[in-house]
Amino acid sequence: MNLRVPQLRFEASDELASLCKAGGDPLRLNVLRALANDSFGVLELAQIFATGQSGISHHLKVLAQARLVATRREGNAIFYRRALAQTELFCGKLHAALLDEVDALELPAEVQQRIAVVHSQRAAASHDFFARIADSFQAQQDLIASLPQYRDSLLGLLDSLNFASSATALEVGPGDGGFLPELARRFAQVTALDNSPAMLELARQRCEREGLANVQLELLDALSQSAASADCVVLNMVLHHFAAPAEAIKQLTPRINLGGSLLITELCSHNQSWARDACGDLWLGFEQDDLARWASAAGLMPEESVYLGLRNGFQIQVRHFRRPLAALTVR
C-alpha cells in the first residue's frame, strides 16, 4: 500500500530565504549600491563590474527573484533599478534594513570610475545628437510633445506659485528657446544654460526676435559648480537627456535658492523606443515615483503635480518640488 506523503508548503520561508540569499553575495550588494539612484542595462553593469554578461545576468536574476530590483524594458534593452521596500508586507522591513546598510557601503574606486565612464558615454551620445539635429529640432520635438500641447498646464502651475516680481529663473537646456519668452514675462532675470553651441544659437536667435532683454544665455554644463542659482529652476522636457537623472537633480538642488522651486516637465514612462533614435532620448520617460524619490533624496519637498494624456499615446507629468528654507534630513 502506497502512502502519499503530503507536500509541505513553505511560501513565506521561501521568500525570506530568497531575500537572504540575494543579500549574501558581495557583488550583488555592490550592484544594489550602484542602483541606489540610477538605472543600468545588463551590458552597462557588466562593464561597471568588469564581469561577463552571463555572470551579471545570473546575479540580477537572483536579485529580481528576491524583489530587490525592478526591471524596465526600453526597446531591446532591459534596465534595472532598485525596487522600493514595502515595509507593510512580509520581508518588507528586512528589505528596507538591507538597503539602509547597503547605502552605507562605499563602492570601490574602480567601480566608481567605470560608472563615470558609462555616464560620459551616455552624455556624449546626447551631445552628438543635438549637434546633428539643431536645424530640425522643432520637428523632432513635435514627434512626441510640442510645447503648445502642455504650455497652459505648465504656466498654470507656474503662475500658482506667486513668485515675487524680483524673482529669478534658471532654465536648463532651453532647446530652441520656446519657453524663454514665458519665463522672461514672469521673472526679473532669466538665465538659460546649454552645453550645445548649436542649440544655444537657436535660443539666442529667438531672444533677439522677441527682444528678451532680461534673458542671459550661457554655454555651460548645468551641473557645473559655476552655474548660477535662481528662485525657480526649470527642466522642461530635458531630464530624459541626462546621463544620470537622479544625480542631475541632486547637483541642481544647490542652484535653487532656499524656499525656491524646481519645475520638471517630463514624459511618463513609455515603451516607444523609436524616440531614442528620432529624438535622442536617453530615457524613455520616468516613473512618477522615481522622480519623487530622487527629489526627496536631494532634499526637496514634493508639491503640486499635473498629468496630461496626449493624443499620440504619451503622457506628460508636470512636477513641482520645493527647496525648504531649512535643510531636510536626507537619508
Outline the structure in words:
With 331 residues, the chain is of the alpha/beta class. Helices cover 42% and strands 20% of the residues. It folds into 2 domains: 97 residues, Arc Repressor Mutant, subunit A (Orthogonal Bundle), CATH 1.10.10.10; 186 residues, 3-Layer(aba) Sandwich (Rossmann fold). The chain contains 13 helices and 10 strands. The strands form 2 sheets. It has a 7-stranded mixed beta sheet, sandwiched between helices. Strands 1-3-2 form a 3-stranded antiparallel beta sheet. The longest helix has 25 residues. The mean pLDDT is 88.
SSE layout:
Elements (H helix, E strand, L loop, with lengths): L10 H12 L3 H9 L5 E2 H7 L4 H13 L3 E6 L2 E6 L9 H11 L6 H25 L3 H6 L8 H10 L7 E5 L7 H7 L2 E6 L2 H14 L4 E5 L10 E7 L8 H8 L3 E12 L6 H6 L8 H10 L3 E9 L5 E8 L9
Structure in a nutshell:
By secondary structure, the protein is of the alpha/beta class. It is built from 13 helices and ten strands.
